[in-house]
């Protein structure tokens, strides 16, 4: 049986740069997972020259996933370093390739920026599922200590 173009399904979502009008959807999505996101901070992030935000949107252009990448020069790596600060997918869209595609796009952008070190930080803890996801996407667990000022 031959496969024809009409048999191929387009992804149910598209990835695009975030826009100011996405604030409510992004904030809601991140807050679902316990974050403390707000529209004012999103407006600051989206206009910051060292921050990039991509969203996955459904066919009606509703935000179903988000990834943010911050990048800056860093002396200890001898060049630019980047951090994936946010990676979130709406529960209804979990396990449909949204997170993997957003992460892939962030990695591609980091390569364009000639990033020497790319990290992902998880705020809500490292579950076996989260660790398996990042390992499957080519990341490995780093041996670093993080200290926060109280």
Care to describe what's here?
With about 150 residues, the protein is of the alpha+beta class. It has a single domain, classed as Gcn5-related N-acetyltransferase (GNAT) (Aminopeptidase, 3-Layer(aba) Sandwich), CATH 3.40.630.30. Helix content is about 30%, strand content about 25%. It contains four helices and five strands. It has helices spanning about 25-30, 40-45, 100-110, 130-135, and strands at about 15, 50-55, 65-75, 80-90, 115-120. It has a five-stranded mixed beta sheet, sandwiched between helices. Strand 4, helix 3 and strand 5 form a beta-alpha-beta unit. The longest helix is centred in the last third of the chain and has 15 residues, at about 100-110.
**Largest beta sheet, briefly?**
5 strands, mixed
Residues in helices, as a percent range: 25-40%
- As residue ranges, the low-confidence spans are 1-7
Please write the CATH class name: Alpha Beta
**Rg value:** 17 Å
Number of domains: 1
Approximately what portion of the residues adopt beta-strand conformation?
A: 25-35%
């Amino acid at each position: 049986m031959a496969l024809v173009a009409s048999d191929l399904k387009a992804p149910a979502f598209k990835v695009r740069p975030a826009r100011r009008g996405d604030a409510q959807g992004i904030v809601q999505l991140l807050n679902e997972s316990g974050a403390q996101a707000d529209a004012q901070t999103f407006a600051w992030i989206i206009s910051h020259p060292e921050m990039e935000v991509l969203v996955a949107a459904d066919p009606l252009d509703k935000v179903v996933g988000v990834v943010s990448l911050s990048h800056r020069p860093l002396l200890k790596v001898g060049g630019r370093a980047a951090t994936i600060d946010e990676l979130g997918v709406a529960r209804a869209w979990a396990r449909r390739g949204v997170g993997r595609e957003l992460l892939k796009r962030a990695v591609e952008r980091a390569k364009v920026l000639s990033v020497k070190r790319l990290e992902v930080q998880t705020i809500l803890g490292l579950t076996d599922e989260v660790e398996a996801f990042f390992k499957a996407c080519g990341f490995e667990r780093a041996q670093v200590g993080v200290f926060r000022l109280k």
